[in-house]
Structure prediction request, 219 residues.
Amino acid sequence: MSRRENLPKVPACSACNGIKSGHEHYLTTVLPFASNHQDAAAVLSQMVERRLEKNAKLKNRLAAGHRQELTLQNGIFVPAMTLPFDGDRVGELFKFITQGLLYHHFKIILDRQRHGVWAGFLNRPGEEMHRKLLSQNASARVTGDIGGGAFVYEGAQGVDFPEMSIWIFHLFGGIRVSGDDHEPEAMIRLVGGVTASQRVLRLLEGGEGTDSPTAAQLP
Prediction:
């Protein structure tokens, strides 16, 4: 598809690339079902269907878990169709993406002994914290839109420490997820990413997405 042209490319070892590809295959197969993007129908018919034909295990898992249930939205329980979803894999994939964008835009490679990366779905406090950090002074800022709104991101690099960066990602025009016991209301969630020293990452713990969602809600 022409919308996939000019994707950022960064060097990676074969082992990391294999792990990333596994998470990417899973998420680009499942999340389009809950997509509000203008190309959702075309992606489902042209790309997702082919992927599922080659992955019978995932196809059967989605079929078995596909159900209608009551989800809490704006304080009201409403019926919705949902698919089972491993939200932890979002965090694992976006750790790679966050580090890749740090290198792509700022030419920074993290020292694994001193620095680390966190990524995952953001709860409300986590989103507020990320937006606050993004609004502060930065050495550099970047934005990107890949696929006409399918993957939109914003990032900022720290002033004093070039290895520190903060990112917000918006996926597939908005993905509504549920199943987080700490935040039970179904909501469109953003994904966040942070690179920083190990000490700073420990200080930031608690602003992430609590438990990962376990269901993706069909529009």
